[in-house]
Amino acid sequence: MANQIAKKRIEELRTVIQKHNYQYYVLDNPTISDSDYDALYKELVALEKENPEFITEDSPTQKVGGVILQGFQKIEHDTPMLSLSNAFSKEDLIQFDKRIKDSIHQEVAYTCELKIDGLAISLKYVNGKFVTGATRGDGRIGEDITQNLKTISSIPLKLQENITLEARGECFMPKSAFVSLNEQRELLGEPIFANPRNAAAGSLRQLDSAITAKRQLDVFLYGGDIPSIDTQEQLLQALKQVGLKINPETKIYRSIDDVWSYIETISQERQNLPYDIDGIVIKVNDFQQREEIGYTVKAPKWAIAYKFPAEEVQTKILDIQWTVGRTGVVTPTAIMEPVFVAGSTVQRASLHNVDLLKEKDIRLGDTVILHKAGDIIPEIKTVLLEKRPKQSVVYDIPTHCPECQSQLVHLQDEVALRCINPHCAAQIKEGVSHFVSRQAMAILGMGTKISAKIFDAHLIEDVADLYYLTLEQLLELDKVQEKTATNLLTSIDNSRHHSMEKLLFGLGIRHVGSKQAQQLSSAFGSIQALRQATIEELVAIDGIGMVIAESVVTYFKLPEVHVLLEKLEKAHVNMTYTGIQKSDVAQSVLTDKTVVLTGKLERFTRTQASEYIVKLGGKVTGSVSAKTDIVIAGEDAGSKLEKAKALNILVWSEDDLHRLIEEHIESIGG
Ligand code: IVH
Which of 195, 329, 587, 644 could staple 374 via S-S, CB 3.0–4.6 A? Predict the structure, then answer.
């Protein structure tokens, strides 16, 4: 009987959560708070864990991924996925309009849709259930990427109605997700993606769907075989109604002049869209007219894609700078004459690695074509050979480290050029910056300038030496006042008590990001235990693969690491896993207060802000109610702020929180 109650509740929760997902992802209009949603979701997870026999494939909990495939199966599309012919000018559009009018001799309405720069996908639903998803492939046969598509939040596993349909659309990575993915990859020494489109493609082609699940992909649908539909406009509304996400910017016009004005407006505004578009798709709205106009083998004659000219500019290479990162990788950056491109002035472009520099044969004085990859990251596309100065010579790749002058090496299988001198000043300085950063030991007040000063004055040789610094030593440094010095020492002192994961991340082991540090720390509990871990023990941990495991084992074998850890231990730096410690919690005006964060924060991530609030004695919740004591509102705060005002709840700015943190920095340890 109890079983039947659980079954009923699971079914209820599934339906309610599906409804909330629809409200949130498709209608962009959530009707419950994040924390209430989380509570429902957690309840479902717990009930399904106890009663696994009631888990259905369309349960919202089945979106986390984890299915690992050997390869992708082929899927033949029921009807071919066609492509579009292109237009590059107003003239091309006038021609297109003329061809249509010549063919049907009628007035025509056009829908103008954004041409999302991602990958075409097809989603099959049978009786409302998501059954398969595929790439376009060659148009006739695509690849079965069902498991990966299932993890995308805006693809429902169950529709709002029990209908059978094949929907088509575009899968893409929003610009913000692309930027943070690349930041993370750069940190871990992994190759970065050139643009959001490549990142989306790479994410959809993962054999392990748990990886796709983390990539924050999104979709817009624009096609589907829903019966009794007469126009594109109706089709889009019907897709939305059954639970699929459509793009909100679509417009209908009755003349090519109006279409052109729309194109001009979007060209101006596309920088501000949260995703990349590469054009506008113009489609005849009426389906009957479409049939009369017809198709070529490859594309419909009733639609055309206007492609934006890629924003490209010319500039000159003034210099190539080489910087040494904390892992010794030496990276070239092109310094150029400043130019305005895709919304901002650019004068530096990373060349990523020495092979790229050689491959593009970039030379000093060269005129180059510059664009922004994914409209964001400055990238040199090509050199204009016809503008190359006559006396130009091939750029001399450095053979020695720009910082310590030791010989550079080009390791096999690596695109990077490396300085392998463990005493290289640039590497150590970068290593110190990383060690003191917020996510690592969070030694506030220790900026790059002051840490460089300390290093240059030979007060430290490695990060452990930070814990042996004295007030007298710091006061001898140029322009360092007593207050700054004491604050810094307190900050260093407090960092001794952090839980192990911050130290582990701070050590800067290759491939160990903050997330891996957290996983390793909670699994092993102490640096001591981790030092003795074998590859087998490491890979047995969720989220730790062979590359990370090997890197960890190699790191802990290094003799200089033994010395470093001994020094840290002697300085009483905590090496065990404790999570947030009680001793870190301060008495403050936030003690026992319930706080809600809302809006965009500039100085902190949400997690950091929440962590500080907890350390200051407060509790963070998701929704504003009569029980809320303080609402901290960042930029663009919306309904939560309104509600706080209505309930007469104290509202703080982000600066107020920052001030409080500064006041208590000594007791909460950064
Ligand atoms: S319609 C038969 N609409 O552009 C119609 N395509 O070169 C086929 N795309 O493969 C496509 N946004 O990947 C259509 N609103 C939109 C689109 C769109 C992006 C992509 C799609 C297609 C390619 C056509």
Answer: 195
**How far is 372 from 269, CA to CA, in rounded Å?**
16
The pLDDT value recorded for residue 581 is 46
567 vs 585: CA distance, rounded Å: 27
- Beta-bridge partner residues of 286: 231
Residue 575 has pLDDT above 70, yes or no: yes
Q: What is the pLDDT of residue 373?
A: 73
Query: Residue with the nearest Cα to atom 4 of ligand 1?
Result: 115
For a substitution probing ligand 1, which of 117, 222, 225, 249 has the most ligand atoms within 8 Å of its CB? 222
The pLDDT of residue 583 is above 50: no
Q: Is 84 in the pocket of ligand 1 (CB under 6 A)?
A: yes
Give the phi and the psi of residue 152 in degrees, each rounded to 5. Answer: -80, 125
CA distance 628 to 481: 41
CA 112 to chain centre: 29
Least trusted range by pLDDT, from 279-293, 490-504, 564-578, 583-597? 583-597
* Span from the CA of 107 to the centroid of ligand 1 (angstroms): 24
**Distance between CA atoms of 223 and 245, rounded to whole angstroms?**
11
**637 Cβ partners below 8 Å, 6+ apart?**
598, 599
Cα–Cα dist 253/112, whole Å? 8
Q: Give the DSSP letter of residue 61.
A: G
**pLDDT number for residue 93:** 97
The pLDDT value given to residue 582: 47
Buried b / exposed e over 386-397, threshold 16 CB at 10 Å, is: eeeeeeeeebeb
The rounded distance, in Å, linking the Cα atoms of 153 and 174 is: 13
171 Cα to the center of ligand 1, angstroms: 11
DSSP state, residue 489:
H
Annotation says 115 is catalytic: yes
- Ligand 1 atom nearest residue 299's Cα: 2
| Model confidence band, residue 273 (pLDDT cutoffs 50, 70, 90) | very high
- Tokens for 394, please give them: 């091939």
Looking at every residue in the chain, the average pLDDT score rounds to 91
Strand order in the sheet with 119-126: 129-135, 119-126, 165-172, 218-224
Q: What integer pLDDT is reported at residue 295 of this predicted model?
A: 93
Residue nearest to atom 2 of ligand 1 (CA): 82
Integer CA distances (angstroms), 167 to 58, 221, 335, in order? 17, 7, 47
Q: Which two tokens stand for residue 206?
A: 């993962």
The SS3 of residue 140 is coil
Q: Are 407 and 449 in contact (CB under 8 A)?
A: no
Residue tagged active-site, from 115, 158, 245, 502: 115
